[in-house]
Amino acid sequence: MNAPAFHLVRPPVAVAPLLSVRNVSLEYRTEQRTVRATHDVSFDVFRGDRFVLLGPSGCGKSSLLKAVAGFIAPRAGSITMQEKIITKPGPDRVVVFQEFDQLPPWKTVLENVMFPLLASKRLDKVAARERAHHWIAKVGLAGFEYAHPHTLSGGMKQRVAIARALAMQPEVLLMDEPFAALDALTRRKMQEELSRLWEELRFTLVFVTHSIEEALVVGNRILLLSPHPGRVRAELNSHQFGLYSGGSAEFQAASSRIHGLLFDEDVVPVQHEDQPQREAV
Ligand SMILES: Nc1ncnc2c1ncn2[C@@H]1O[C@H](COP(=O)(O)OP(=O)(O)OP(=O)(O)O)[C@@H](O)[C@H]1O
Predict the structure, then answer these.
(1) Which label site among 20, 105, 182, 198 has the fewest CB atoms less than 10 Å from its CB?
(2) CA nearest 172: which of 43, 37, 41, 9?
(3) Tens digits of per-residue pLDDT, 176-187?
(4) Helix axes 184-201, 154-167, angle to 10 degrees
(5) Beta strand 172-176 pairing with 93-96
């Protein structure tokens, strides 16, 4: 089989990134030891990107997402949104987690979606209710507004979490392995739903996964991270792949190339410059 096409692609020079991660090292400190989660990681996310952080378990993907969300501070480097340094969580960055228990169980679907709108004082009760109904319908849950989370399937709970996040109209939607706990069919369905929503709304997405296939299906750009502590292995353009590329020879070739880049010890980590070069897989 021929090697996959290899093109160098540069972002348009005039476009400023929405989110900029520069030389970020993340650490967890306890009394006994210090764990370095990522080392010197840099990347830019542009408006409308579906940017995927891909790497093996423990390489610091979730930690990077938490740092972008403002839950943890970098030990070194900086993270900026629209050129402002991120120092704490904010309504411009909303996270959807993998865990189904991210929804307070005592609240109905409607109350769950309304809650951050009210807590952040974005909307009054009437407007929040109206917006929540809109987003619940958008994710295909019309009719379940008054259901409680424990009566919903895993996929339905993730839809509620997505509706709750998108209702906030964040600048960036952050998703941490949101479909990893779902069965294969539901996972696929949710990838389709997410792609459908993105086609319609063109929001900016930062998506964490350790699945190469999911990265290719969901993302238009993929950052590959090395095993613990995570460093940038490569940055790839993957906009040519979508939901229905799965069985194609190009998809399989891209998938094995990424596998090689992730696990081949000989790969030299990418040196980031002000205007890094990116490859298409
Ligand atoms: N709260 C914490 N305290 C101490 N160490 C932590 C903490 N959270 C994560 N780590 C460590 O930081 C490293 C990166 O963890 P992180 O969860 O970010 O990786 P990941 O790539 O998201 O992994 P996975 O795919 O398994 O979720 C790991 O070595 C992990 O043990």
Answers:
(1) 105
(2) 43
(3) 999 999 999 999
(4) 20
(5) parallel
First to last CA, the chain: 15
Boundaries of every domain in the chain: 17-92+173-190+203-281, 101-169
Expressed in angstroms and rounded, the spacing between residue 35 Cα and the centre of ligand 1 is 9
Residue among 192, 168, 196, 167 nearest 182 (CA): 192
Least confident range of 15-24, 90-99, 252-261, 264-273: 264-273
Residue from 25, 27, 28 to probe ligand 1 pocket by mutation (most atoms less than 8 Å from CB): 28
Distance CA 255, CA 185 (A): 20
List residues near ligand 1 (CB under 6 A). Answer: 28, 35, 37, 55, 57-63, 210, 228
Domain 17-92+173-190+203-281: give its CATH architecture: 3-Layer(aba) Sandwich (3.40)
Phi then psi for residue 256, to 5 deg, are: -75, -30
pLDDT at position 246 is 77
φ, ψ dihedrals at 51, nearest 5° = -100, 125
- Give me the DSSP letters along 166-178: HHT--SEEEEEST
33 Cβ contact list (under 8 Å, min separation 6): none
